[in-house]
From TrEMBL, chain A:
Domain Peptidase M16 N-terminal: 59-205
GO MF entry, a single one: metal ion binding
Source species of the chain: Lepidothrix coronata
GO CC terms, sorted: mitochondrial inner membrane; protein-containing complex
Protein name (Swiss-Prot/TrEMBL): Cytochrome b-c1 complex subunit 1, mitochondrial
TrEMBL record, chain B:
Entry-linked SUPFAM superfamilies: LuxS/MPP-like metallohydrolase
Pfam families: Peptidase_M16, Peptidase_M16_C
Positions of the Peptidase M16 N-terminal domain: 71-113
Family: Belongs to the peptidase M16 family.
Protein purpose: Substrate recognition and binding subunit of the essential mitochondrial processing protease (MPP), which cleaves the mitochondrial sequence off newly imported precursors proteins.
Originating gene: PMPCA
Species classification: Eukaryota, Metazoa, Chordata, Craniata, Vertebrata
Highest taxon, organism lineage: Eukaryota
Record's protein name: Mitochondrial-processing peptidase subunit alpha
GO molecular function: metal ion binding
Entry's Gene Ontology cellular component terms: mitochondrion
GO BP annotations listed: protein processing involved in protein targeting to mitochondrion
Residues annotated as domain Peptidase M16 C-terminal: 187-386
InterPro entries reported for this sequence: Metalloenz_LuxS/M16 (IPR011249), MPP/UQCRC_Complex (IPR050361), Pept_M16_N (IPR011765), Peptidase_M16_C (IPR007863)
Amino acid sequence: MAARSVCRAGSAAGRALLWGPRPSAALLTLTRKRGAATYAQTLQNIPETEVTTLENGLRVASEESRQPTCTVGVWIEAGSRYENAKNNGAGFFVEHLAFKGTKKRPGSAFEKEVESLGAHLNGYTSREHTAFYIKALSKDMPKVVELLADAVQNCALEDSQIEKERGVILRELKEMDSNLMDVTFDYLHATAFQGTPLAHTVEGTTENIKRLTRADLASYVDTHFKAPRMVLAAAGGISHKELVDAAKQHFSGVPVAYKEDAVPILPRCRFTGSEIRARDDGLPLAHIALAVEGPGWADPDNVVLNVANAIIGRYDRTFGGGKNQSSRLATLAVEHNLCHSFQTFNTSYSDTGLFGFHFVSDPLSIDDMMFCAQGEWMRLCTSTTESEVTRAKNYLRNAMVAQLDGTTRVCENIASHLLNYGRRIPLEEWDARISAVDARMVRDVCSKYIYDKCPAIAAVGPIEQLLDYNRLRSAMYWIRL
Amino acid sequence: MAAAMAWLRRGARGAARRCGLAAGRSYSGGGAYPSVSLTCPLPGVPKAVFAAAEGRERFETRVTVLENGLRVASQNKFGQFCTVGILVNSGSRHEAKYLSGISHFLEKLAFSHQELPLQQLGLLSLALCPVPDEEIEMTRTAIRFELEDLNMRPDPEPLLTEMIHAAAFRDNTVGLNRFCPVENTDKIDRDVLHSYLRSYYTPDRMVLAGVGIEHEQLVECARKYLLGVEPVWGTGQSRGVDRSVAQYTGGIVKVEKDMSDVSLGPTPIPELTHIMIGLESCSFLEDDFIPFAVLNMMMGGGGSFSAGGPGKGMFTRLYLNVLNRHHWMYNATSYHHSYEDTGLLCIHASADPKQVREMVEIITREFILMAGAVGEVELERAKTQLKSMLMMNLESRPVIFEDVGRQVLATNTRKLPHELCALIGQVKPTDIKRVVTKMLHKKPAVAALGDLTDLPSYEHIQAALSSKDGRLPRLYRLFR
C-alpha cells in the first residue's frame, strides 16, 4: 500500500511540503507563473473548506468541487504513540480488522458491499494518526458514511478473523523487513526517541502480534476511538450540508466519555542524540539516515525548514539530467558518484519532530557522501544565498499546489490540517508564509536546529565505512575565527 | 465528562498561550521572522475570497488544428493548476528500421536537457538547441542505471510485460523492446537520433494537450512557439514513416533465471516461477474494447497476500476461483494492454517452480471458463467497478492529459467519460461471450521467467486453450 509510506513521514501535510511529484518525461506540470498577481488570484480560485462540529465533538469538514467522484474518511488521533510496550501493534491490528466484518455486516458482507458499490476502501496507521477512507462515486456518499461509521464503531473483532489476520500481519512484517528504507527510518525513531512511545514501530513487535488477544484490541478501540479526537473529512462532489446530515445520523453515537474519566495524556517524548548500526556486509547497498530534533507540527519554523530541505533537494541516479541538477548536493553526487539516491525529510509530531536526510550508497562511498551532506548542512547554516532560497520557495509553492490533485489527496490534507493545526490553512496563507522566508531566516533557523546539535543516526547494511559517532558529531559545527 | 471536555479544549488548540509568540525554544539572534504558530491565522493575509464551482463540471474537450498539422487540444477543469504537454505519435513500435532503444533514449534526454529555464517544455528545448555530447553520455549512464535497477528488482512485472509483447507480436511494432538493450546504449548517437526525429517528430504526428487551461490561450502559445519553428534536426529528407499495422503472431518467450535469491533485504523471498499467458483482444478504437475492459475487471486478481482494503477486486474470478482455492499460488492477475490497432489480454501467475504445471492448467481453465456463463451479479459488479475506476482515475490532471492526448492523436476527437460510462452500462453477458469466443480462436502468447523445468510445452498450452475444458493433454510418464 502506497499509503504505508505516508505513515512513516508523519502525515500527508508534511509530505506535501517536502516531496514534490516525481518528474516524468512525458508530463510536466506548470503553474501559471506569469506574474505575482495572477498566482495570488489562482490561489484564491478554490472552494472553501467548511467545518462543522457535532454535539459529541466530532468535526465534519469538506471541500466541494462538483466532481462525479469523492473521497470520504475518518481520521482519528490514535496511533503507536498512544501504545505501550505491551500492546504495541494493537492499532495496526485493529486497522486490519476494521473491514473484516462488523456487527451489522458480519463476515465478508462488508467487503462485498463495498465492492458492489465499485468503491475503494483503504486505511493506514501512523505514529499519531489512524485513518479509514473510502473513494466512491459522489452519489453514493450517504451509504459510504454509513459504512465508515459501521467500521469504526461496530467492529466485530471476531475470533476467527483475528487468528487469520495474525498470520497475515506476521507475513507482512517479514515483507516489510526487506524494505530497507522503512527499516532505517524505524531504527531512526527507535534510537532518537529511545525509551519513549515514539520509539515504537507502528506495526508492533512479533511477540506482541502473536500475543494480542481480543480483549487487548477491544480495549484499544474503547480507549482511543472517541468523538473529540475524530475528524470526518470529505472532498469531491458532495455538499457540506448533506455530509453533516449523514454524519449526524450515523456518527452521533460515537462515545465521548472515557472509562473512569481516564483521559490518555500524551507524555513528552525526549530526543536523544545517539546512533544505531545494523551492519550486514551481505547486503549490496548501505542505507543511512541522520536527523536532528525538529519542531512540532504547529511551529512556524517548519516553513523555513521545508525551504531548507528544498534547497538540498533530492536525487536518484535514474533521474536524467546528469550534472545539471538544481541542488548542489545532487551535482556533487553525480560528479563524484557518491550515492544511488538521497532525500531530505522533515517529519513532525505534535510536540517534536525529526529533521534530516537519508541516502543509499555503495559501501565505499559512505564517508564521502556523509562529508558532502553534512558540509551542505553547514553551508546552509552559514552561507545560504538569496537565489537558491528563491528557487526553493518556488519549488515548494509548486509542490504544495500540485499535491492537491485528486479528491483523496485533498481529503487527507483537510483531515490532517484539522488534526494538526486545528484549522485548514488556506493556500494564500501558506504562500504568504513561504514568501516571507529569506536567506537570513534560513541561516538563522537552520543554525537553531542543526548547528552544534547531537544528531540521531541509523545505518543498515555494509556500513563499515561510516565513521564513528564522535566524528559525525564534530561535523555538526565549524571551527571558525 | 469534564476530562473529555478538557480534551476538546486541548484538541481545539484555542489556548491563548499557543497563539501569538511561539512557545518553546527561545532564541537569541534577532532576525524579524514570523513567529506566529501555524495554529493561528497569519495576521496581514487578506481574508480569502473563495470560489465555487459553477454547475456540474462540464467536460468539454476542444480541438484546433494548426496550419502545420499540429493539433491543439484542451480540457477545462476547475482548480488552481494545469498540466500541459506534447504527445508524439512515436514509440518503440516505430523502431523497426532503427536501432532498438531510441525512444527510451529520447525520453531520458528530453527531460535532462535543461538549457532553457524550467518553464519551457523539455521537448521544446530539445528541438531548439543542439544536444551536446556530454549530455548524450549522461543519458547513456542513466539508462544503464535504470536497466540495472530493473534487473535487481524482485518484482518481475516490467520484464514480463516486455516478454509477453515480444511473444505476441514477434519482431514487429509493439513487440519491439521498450527499454534500450544494453548493447545499443553505445551505438546510439546524435546522428541516429536526428534521423529518427526527422521522420517521427513532425507536427502532424503531435498533439499539444492541456488540462485546466483556456483553449484560446493554449492555441496562442502554440502559434507563438511551435508554428514555423525549424527544429535543430532539420526538416530534410526523412527515411519514411513506418506505418506497419501490428501483426499478432503468438508464440513463446522463455527466460531461464535463477530466482532463488532476489530479495534486496535480509529476509529471503521464496523462489517463484512467473508465467504470463495472453491472447489478442482488440484496439481501443473498436467497439469491442469496452466488453474487453469489463472482462478484464471481472477477472481481476492480484497477489494472494496483498495489503489494501476492499475495492481491489476481492470478489473477482481470479480471487474467488483461483487464489482462494489454491493457497500455493502467490499471484494471479489479469491485464489488458490496448493500442491503436491491436490489444492483448493476459493473465500473470506465479508459484513455486515445482507447481508450474498445475498453475498453467488452472490459468488455461480460467480462460476457457471466460467463454462460459457469466453471472448477472458478477457482471454488474465488474461494470460498476470499471465505471468507478474510470471516474476516479480521471480526477488527476496528468491522467486527463494523457487521455485527451491519446484519443486526439488516434481519432482527432475525444470520447468523454460519461459517454464511456454509458457504453460500459450497455455491456451484456452475450457481448462478453462473443468477444471471448473470438479471442480463444487466436494463437496464445506465453512468457515464462524463472526455473522452467516443469513448464508444459507451447503446443500443449495451445491445445489446452482450444479444448473444451481447458485441461492440458495428459502426460504419460513411466517414472513420476
